Amino acid sequence: MSFYPVSRGFGTRGGSWRGKDRLDSRGQAKSPVPPAAPLGQIIDRINIKALLVEQDAPTIQDIKYVASYNWLEGKSPTILVPGSPPAWTPPFGATKLKPDSEDVFRDINAARYPSYPLEPTFRALKVMEPEFDLHTIDIVGCGSTIGNLMRFSGSLSKPFRFDVDVVGDTVLFVRRESSPTEIIQDLQGYGHTFPEAYTTWDSAVRNSCSHQRAVQYEFGDLKFLVRSETDGYVRFDKPSAAQEAPSNLEDALETISLVPSTADAGKELQVRLRGTKVPQSQIFDVKTRRSNKLFDMEDILPRLWANQTSKFLIAYHKFGVFENPEVEDVRGEVLAWEENNSNLLARYHAVVKRIVDVVRGSEDKQCEVSWDGEGPLLITKQVGTGRRALPSAVVESFDS
């Protein structure tokens, strides 16, 4: 049984699928990807076959959508809070599309704000949930880091590496690519041109290039905060109360001291209040396939489970012509996947628990987690100066 979508990296679409960011901030061609940095001293090894696993696998409970933001196109790093995903607006009749051709960032958060890729999540969280208690959360991660650990738990060979930082008792997983502006090579198909043709940004968030959102939930004895990218949402006929942006957003932004953090090249992260809160029940993910290549739902269900997305669209085409694609409710399939993969999820829970315990007890509380795709998973010290996941001003805003 296959567990994870390899082409999408499990985490997000991979970057600015509506953007055209081929150049760096100075308008120069991006530099080649540097070689991998050396690993530090080994703190712990995790052998998945020898790992002690609880007999009863936990299930996800107490799910809550807590934060969201859009990345705005432009040279300055700017997010719109709460933002909103592009709405499902299919054209009338069958439409022939051009195949993907634009460069796409592997990690848009790092590409837009390399100093602290997790910071936009916490900026949005502080605005939308001013009383949020960060110290009640055990793990903060993105779809990519969570997906990497699930692959390891299922012994699906795909190397990975990410940073770990501890803030209080909260363990933050920070995605790490070879370069912040690394792009996905050799894109094929219509995974990016299809959303451009079949979804539309709402007027309040026009010129956005990505919608990111964070959900909070409990998984066994661990509390997670997971950020991921969302492909779109299905509109209701009439906006519900849950869709309206909280009236206290302006007050929240004024009363909390969000000191701008300096990004590379002296650019600061800007926060603008725009968009509408879209309930988790309305968002969906997209995959495209040739009509003669049946899509296996086992390739997407782990992602939908991890970020708690209940709607999905598989769009089949013949030479770029899509006929009547529809968004479907897959909540039942996600729950069935959770039940049928209890052994995998028990191992995944044990792996995450082990990492949390080890890094909380480490001397520097700043580590790396890596896997070469074959041997044990390694927890190592960071080489050189430790890399903080968040600037001190953001951490202090939650402590206050």
From TrEMBL:
Sequence ranges of Basic and acidic residues compositional bias: 18-27
Stretches for region Disordered: 15-36
Name this protein carries in UniProt: Geranylgeranyl pyrophosphate synthetase
